[in-house]
Amino acid sequence: MPSPSQVPSARPAAPGDRFEQPTLDGMLADPLQLDLRHTTFVVLDLETTGGAPDGAGITEIGAVKVRGGEELGSFGTLVNPGVPIPPFITVLTGITTAMTVEAPPIEAVLPSLLEFLSGAVLVAHNAPYDTGFLKAACAAHGYRWPNPRVVDTVALARRVLLRDEVPNNKLGTLAAYFRVGDQPNHRAMDDARATVGVLHALIARLGGHKVHTLGDTIEFVKAVAPVQRAKKHLAENLPHAPGVYLFRAADDRPLYVGTSNDIATRVRSYFTAAERRARIKEMLGAAVRVDAVECAHALEAQVRELRLIAVHAPPYNRRSKHPERVQWLKLTAEAFPRLSVVRQLTADGAAYLGPFAGRATAQAAVDAIHEALPLRQCTPRLSARKASPACALAELGKCPAPCQLAISVEEYDAQAAAPLRAAFDGDPDAVVDPLLARIRRLSDAQRYEDAAAVRDRLAAFLRAAVRMQRLSALTSIEELIAARRTERNAWEIAIVRRGRLAAAATAEPGVHPRRTLDILRPTAETVLAAPGPTPAATPEETERILDWLERPETRLVEATSGWASPARGAARWKMLLQAGR
């Protein structure tokens, strides 16, 4: 052990020592994927004055650098804690205040210690205690904590050893159980060497759990469910590329569909402690393989995911499973138009608003419209020449009574139908202004609950109008081509036809994007015209495309017509919607 006056030092590297990580094909390997025998560990132990870490209190540091069972270097020193060492600590460790008087303070030790730790995995017995003191010391003296990966031999022992093998996981107990040559004695270097022996013994036991890499070891220590550990092999041999992944059952049914910019990394995360969803763990129990569909870029992957979910309705996907269930408001095409909630759009001359996620939201928008405009609420088809029996609303004066021919077709259109059509695809003030006035009157009368109900109905209408006008602006364009430059100077290219992704490709660095586009264009999907704001794709697909197109780095290349939104459209009321939330 070092003398009281010894300055911190590390054993000089011998000519044959190599501290750098192994490389693969000339590139630095991913440390988490390295086999444990190729991983460099620094096994560390601290002696302290006790108490909580506050930037001081460290009395001795011992650290040993090892890889593949060989010792590569060591670092050991006493440290002046700046305060007297309590008697009970002296009895426990044998370190006295006199021994540390001429030792360097922690701020002088840290630079050498941090350099010794650089590039290695930190190992300690009860690691949170040791790292807590080192982090506090770095913070107190202006050093950046390198945040190394940490392996705690206490936590590892709890996962590896059975309860009947050892009575506890103290360092002395484990060192004796594994018959380690260096037994701990509450001195930093001796305890660090004892921890080295315990670490090697625990690593030898990890093979039986099919844990061979540093990443596997870190995850093994965490609370990973048995089904995750048993099915971890499903994440093997997947591509590090953007695309879609499908967990499949034994009968080949898709159980779950997902997307990622890196398929392999994302699928691997399902088998770690970070995955806590009970439904996903249940899904893993039924899964027998994972299929990957590589895509040109993230946008294509998102669109493919939506289409696969819509087709297969995987039981463990919650969102996007039933796009056909969306609701629309229809303003009928007849002498005296009325509103109805429908699921299908047809070329019948009617005006539509939507999509709505459910019937309740659609009904709220209907109620908002009826409150703002004198639109009839009865369902029969009315004649422009022959009167029909009046309903209760007409008798109460809450309907212009077209059934009684009390209003002409032209007057009804001017007062109710035409303003509503304009609100659907243009200026929504005919609906918004009357409802805002009503909210103000109710608030002035302190009828706040009634005002909130009107506000919610208005919000349901406005959200649908904003969404539809945004969708219609893109879906009205027969073909639009856009490109986005990536961080590695490639170009993501998308051909969009009537709001549907018709083709996608990536022009790699050094390849002119126009050349890639010329090859891609003849292969693009033919998209035919159809009625409605979303004629060729689901609303969710078109919205994903819009999000990609509206990114600042995306550039428009070509378009068959202009891409524009109404100047006085519903989008100008977005601030009102945000205030309502």
Structure description:
This protein is α+β, with helices and mostly antiparallel strands and 581 residues long. It is 38% helix and 17% strand. The chain has 20 helices and 18 strands. Strands 1-6-5-4-7-8 form a six-stranded mixed beta sheet. It has a four-stranded antiparallel beta sheet with strand order 17-16-15-18, sandwiched between helices. A three-stranded antiparallel beta sheet has the order 10-9-11. Helix 5 (153-160) packs parallel to helix 7 (188-206), helix 6 (171-177) crosses helix 7 and helix 16 (429-444) packs antiparallel against helix 17 (448-475). It is elongated. It starts with 8 loop residues before the first strand and ends with a helix. Residues 1-28 have low confidence and may be disordered.
State the helix count: 20
Adjacency order of strands in the biggest sheet? 1-6-5-4-7-8
C-alpha geometry? elongated
| Arithmetic mean of pLDDT | 88
Largest sheet: 6 strands, mixed
Q: What proportion of the residues form beta strands (DSSP E)?
A: 15-25%
Helical/strand content category? alpha+beta
Question: Total strand count, please?
Answer: 18
Radius of gyration: 35 Å
Would you identify the regions where 5 or more consecutive residues have pLDDT less than 50?
1-28
The percent of residues in helical segments reads: 25-40%
